[in-house]
Amino acid sequence: MRRRTPSRHRLVPTRSFLRRLSRTSISGQRSRRGSGRGSRRAPRRVLSRVFRRPAVLWAKRPRMLRGIRGFLAACLAFCLVLIGAVVVTYIRTPLPTEPQDGVTDEGSAVYYADGRTPAFRLGANREVVRHEQIPEHVRWAVIAAEDRGFYSGHGVSPMGMARALVKGASGGETQGGSTITQQLARNYFKGLSQKRSFDRKFKEIFVALKLDEHRSKKEILTLYLNTVFFGRQTSGIQAAARAYFDKDVWQLTVAEGALLAAMIQRPMYFHTQGDTPPARALRARWQYVINGMVTLGKLSRAQADRERFPQTRDEWRGVDVSGQTLLVRQRVLDELRELDVPIQSVVNGKLKIYTSLDQRWMRYAEQAMKAAGEPRWPGTVRAGLIAVDPRDGAVKAFYGGDPKRSQYDSVFNPVAQAGSTFKPYVLAAALRRGYSARSIVNGRSPQKFAPDGQLTPMTAPGYLVENDEKIGSLGPVDLVEATAQSVNTGYVKLGFEAGLDNVARTATDLGVPAAALAPFKNQAGITLGTATIPAADQAAGYAAFANGGLAVRPHVITKIVDAWGREIPLPWRRPGRRVLTTEQAAQVTYSLRQTVQKGTGRRAALTDHEAAGKTGTTDRNRAAWFVGFIPQLSTAVMMTDTKGAPLKGLYKQRGTVSGETTPAMIWRAFMAKAGRDLTFEPHAEPAFTGQVRNWAQPSPDNPAELAQWCSLPANRKAPACLKAQVGRGTSPLGSATTPPRGATRPSARPTPTRVDTRLRNG
């Protein structure tokens, strides 16, 4: 019996054997054609080769082993070369020390008047904090969100990278495969681009390994938390805490810290409020962070179950709800430029800039303007409100116009003629000349003035002046009444008597820009407000009447502190220059108080404070003003049409706008709210010192009225009276200075009329 070949010696036909078998079959077919016997032997030869003895094939085993050994050697050599290349690359990878451009920029913080609430930032919205200032639960929340193996790893996470690769390849949700150290290497240091590529990824790994070897975990985590982007245009945990929760990072709760940690993954996608997919995704991510803190042992399950998704601020909008961010920012930059602060120090100097803006009063200003319908007025209509502190000119609030209609600043730029709001400067100029506010002017309308200020016949050349049609023609009035009723004819006469150059100088001393007055030098029209003056300068000019005669300069910045804690000096913090005496300021203020009590400004009267102010309306109602004050606050409201059209047909406004209507009511709406924060203070009462003059010159077209006026001893040397004399020794009343026998000598002080008596009494 034939022995069977042991199983270990059985051979499985190989690929080379099958090739031989096929060749043998072909040769057998050829042999069948020539001999039948050969054809019968061919299969035997094939079978003998298939089932040859094992010893024959075992003889070729060294060749197979040599092939396997060669393959393994090649693999080993490749691995050694790869490892060597990795080692060499790692050794040659420099330790990153230089940050990327702008990554360390902190910018400058701008604060409200309380010195704590941030308004906005200039430059990068980042504020660096120390490791100790970041609460431990906030640090662990970030670790739970981004790199749970941060303290135990070496800067890279192979499993995390593989997981991110698989997720991305399968079309699932994008997951962060980079550790905190890798993210820092990519986003902080120079040498790595943001381009997604394998080359960048390999470099990122080497840099991360270097960082982990040469820098402490504390330093890496602090750098990361001060530079990572959190959304809402904020970089760094401190800026994010301010933007989302309006608090400092060291005040964050566990839930708030977990929300900020969750935002790192997709800061431009997540929504903190609502029930949209981005909002639901953020809540799920927040829960993932909370659960991660439990896994890391930094939060118990009971504590985690008590945490609730936190409520964030609606939006990071700088100046809260006022919509004036751009205008405030521009004004701050203008003042910094005026102070010669380099722009580089602003965007990367870590300055702390404190302003005088009151957050609530900014809201009051907007509410007053919107209640009047300002957002729906035509684009050609510009309007604004600004309030300054009379003590130093600090701007407490302003509204420069709805930014949706126009981003042009309507309060710090000159946009409207001053109109009758310029008259208090004329009155102040007269008081500086030594006259009293009880001096008399003629309120008759119309009147025509010669270049020297004297009245001329209506048929002669001259400057024709008329009162507003609501005022009409008046008789002699004192300057208090002329101010309250806004008598144009009387104020033009006062301008001539005070001196037009003195009027311009006084207005300039009170803060009106000299450039605004220069085109109207020695022109009588300057007394009626032909100059275009910014509302900010108007509010500051009237502030001098409220504070007793000291000129102030309107400004927003109250203090600047650099990165080293040094305070930059500000020129407007010096005491104001005295322009008027306290008595002169009190007389102007008294006249403006009468304007609100019984004159054109009655709609601006307040219930809790005594207001003083002046209305102003330009020709054809192209511009309208109300500028007024109480002892603690001076406010100007302005409206104008830039195309010169009358202010009429405006939304929520009836008829044609004048200074005594819409501006006065806007002023009152704002001051009524702001005044609640201020205690009542009385205005200083005047003694009405100074020379009382009677400039109520009668019309030269009425000889009888002129003769009676010239009969007064104080007026006999007036130019009009001298012109009326027919010769030496004559008087305007006759041909001789001595009246004929029987004639009645005119009284040196005629019996006053009812109007004169009324003016004298009040």
Automatic annotation (TrEMBL):
Q: Which Gene3D superfamilies match?
A: Biosynthetic peptidoglycan transglycosylase-like (1.10.3810.10), DD-peptidase/beta-lactamase superfamily (3.40.710.10)
Biased composition range(s): Basic residues: 30-44
What GO CC terms are in its UniProt record? outer membrane-bounded periplasmic space
A GO term (biological process) for this protein? proteolysis
Catalysed transformations (reactions): [GlcNAc-(1->4)-Mur2Ac(oyl-L-Ala-gamma-D-Glu-L-Lys-D-Ala-D-Ala)](n)-di-trans,octa-cis-undecaprenyl diphosphate + beta-D-GlcNAc-(1->4)-Mur2Ac(oyl-L-Ala-gamma-D-Glu-L-Lys-D-Ala-D-Ala)-di-trans,octa-cis-undecaprenyl diphosphate = [GlcNAc-(1->4)-Mur2Ac(oyl-L-Ala-gamma-D-Glu-L-Lys-D-Ala-D-Ala)](n+1)-di-trans,octa-cis-undecaprenyl diphosphate + di-trans,octa-cis-undecaprenyl diphosphate + H(+); Preferential cleavage: (Ac)2-L-Lys-D-Ala-|-D-Ala. Also transpeptidation of peptidyl-alanyl moieties that are N-acyl substituents of D-alanine
Q: InterPro entries given for it?
A: Beta-lactam/transpept-like (IPR012338), Glyco_trans_51 (IPR001264), Glycosyltr_51/Transpeptidase (IPR050396), Lysozyme-like_dom_sf (IPR023346), PBP_transglycosylase (IPR036950), PCN-bd_Tpept (IPR001460)
Q: Which terms are listed as keywords in the entry?
A: Carboxypeptidase, Glycosyltransferase, Hydrolase, Membrane, Multifunctional enzyme, Protease, Transferase, Transmembrane, Transmembrane helix
Q: Where is this region: Disordered?
A: 23-44, 726-762
For the Penicillin-binding protein transpeptidase domain, which residue ranges apply? Answer: 385-643
Gene Ontology molecular function: penicillin binding; peptidoglycan glycosyltransferase activity; serine-type D-Ala-D-Ala carboxypeptidase activity
Q: Which residues form a coiled coil?
A: none
Pfam family, any one: Transgly
Q: Which residues form the Glycosyl transferase family domain?
A: 124-293
Q: Give me the segments passing through the membrane.
A: 70-91
Provide the protein name: Penicillin-binding protein
- Organism, by scientific name, is Actinomadura rudentiformis
